[in-house]
Amino acid sequence: MADATRPPDWHGQALARRLRRRYAAERRFRRLTTAAVIGALGFLLFLLASIVAQGWRGFTETRVAVPIDLAAARLPVDRAQLGGRAADLALAGAGLEGVVDRAADRLGPDLLSPGAWLRVRDAVKRDPSLLARAATFDLPAADPIDRAWKGDGSPAAEAVASRLAPRLSTGLAIRFLTGSDATDPGRAGIWGALKGSLLTMAVTLALAFPVGTLAALYLEEFAPRNRWTDLIEVSINNLAAVPSIIFGLLGLAIFIGTLGLPRSAPLVGGLTLALMTMPVIVIAGRAAIRSVPASVREAALGIGASPVQLVVHHVLPLALPGILTGTVLGTARALGETAPLLLIGMRAFVAAPPRGLTDPATVLPVQIFLWSDQVSGGFVERTSAAIIVLLALLLAITGAAVALRNRWEARR
Amino acid sequence: MNLPRITARDVSVFYGSACAIDRVSIDVDQDRVLALIGPSGCGKSTFLRTLNRMNDTIAGARVQGTIRLDGEDIHAPAMDVVQLRARVGMVFQQPNPFPKSIYENVAYGARIHGLAEARADIDAIVERALRRTGLWDEVKDRLRDRGTTLSGGQQQRLCIARAIAVEPEVILMDEPCSALDPIATARIEELIGELRGRYAIVIVTHNMQQAARVSQRTALFDAGRLIEHGDTSDIFTNPREARTRDYITGRYG
Prior knowledge:
Helix content of chain A: 55-70%
Distance between the termini of chain A: 59 Å
Shape of chain A: extended
Structural class of chain B: alpha/beta
Number of helices of chain B: 10
Distance between the termini of chain B: 34 Å
Strand order of the largest sheet of chain B: 6-7-8-3-9-10
CATH topology of the largest domain in chain A: MetI-like fold
Radius of gyration of chain B: 18 Å
Number of strands of chain B: 10
Structural class of chain A: mainly alpha
CATH topology of one domain in chain B: Rossmann fold
Strand content of chain A: 5-15%
Mean pLDDT of chain A: 88
Largest interface: A-B, 19 and 27 residues
Oligomer: heterodimer
Order of helices and strands of chain B: EEEHEEHEHHHHEHEHEEHH
Number of strands of chain A: 3
Strand order of the largest sheet of chain A: 2-1-3
Number of domains of chain A: 2
Order of helices and strands of chain A: HEHHHHEHHEHHHHHHHHHH
């Protein structure tokens, strides 16, 4: 034990030893913090790399070059019809699908993806002279061939693929970006779920942001301090911690059971997710409002601003970046939410993108969930590709919010 | 003329059950600056903030007694507290310009009280207030800059300009120089001299010399009570109370 009566040694060995100990402790702590960041980054990179490695193939399709002699087929089509709206019907009625199938069968059985002939139809519509000559069309291959060509197929399909190798090519799968769910992985697309997600988020934001912000303002600025407001405060804090599936039950009971809104609709999904997002916005908003400096409040009240003017002119502009941050966090969580939407019926097989808020729809995370459940192997890469789309959407929303916030802060 | 603008009679302030101000009676004159002095925690700031009801914003604060502004009871139900604070402006200890442009800082009061609608009228109000506080020549080319980019002394003068832009009847200053250097302090004191007469002024200060320099009347507070008040020259040269003498000579407080 040190002798308390002796003056401390500020020179020499003892000091050097104390310093060394402090330096070592501080170095250890700093290394720990760095290690934490590196570890987190490592996990993130691993996640991104594995998803991208799996998912990029979901954005591509394998095409087979099929020679088709449309002149020999002598399709009973009137050239005049090809420019108009009746062209689709005319070509279908003339038996174009059969011609394409027979041409493909000459190369091997079950080569083409269902609906591949539609590419020929569209090509003919663009260039009617194709009807009068033989040509080679790059048509989407059937799922087994597609997977074999991407190096993940059955032995039988691998054999077919290697035989056809000179005729196979890889292209961007437009259908994946523009289509909706389908039973065949080659025809399944993400657009329906993406649009469903966008519509759902629009409803969520339109409801949760204003209501959450106003509730936060009321609780921080106008509410009297009494048992009722304490109760409200506790309820909101607890609401933020309620498991999301409970909100699904709530949405099912209120919006579908009581109010009779349509099932599977983005409107109901958005309302349900808004219930879930609101407490997050209220809590973040209250923290942001509380952090507005007291000096600004005094300045405004001292010049004779009314409480409402204080809030509208000073508190809200200063708190808005914080409220926006909370909103982005809440929205990001809602965007990735699956469980409550399953309960309100957004897990249905929906083969067309929703045209409005009340059309049946699904959302990206639910689509991912549904595809990950599919037996057919082609859905594996579709699932990964859908995850990439979801992450991209998330980044876009977060980026937009950050840009908005920075602009707001610069303007102030 | 030494007309009293504000008359406070038997004013007591309670925070919960604690008594912060105990039966204080004092007048604020139109032409004579009133300095409130006293040791920390003596209640002088509380009393100052009672005069424009800024204490209303503190939960549990309660006021007894009457305060009249030009004969009107400021606690009367008919008195709109927002109007009161426009008539009784306030300058705070820390310069607290809004995080907005210099122009907006000064124009804000005029805007919210509807004193002017046309752009030109507001321009005129801003220029007049900035000229009166001696800031105009320093900031006229940067009115769009944020108020917070100014130096501390300039910020405090901006806050004074913001207060006088709405032409208040009384200005309350709560240790306006305590965060400023001596040069900025001298500028503010000079400004108080220039504003005297146009506005009734009450200033809380910890600085005896400042009280002697800027005020014509001085009141000494201690432990929530008004110990002594009178002409500044009398208080500093010939105090009646022993405690006043001890305080101004620095023997206590």
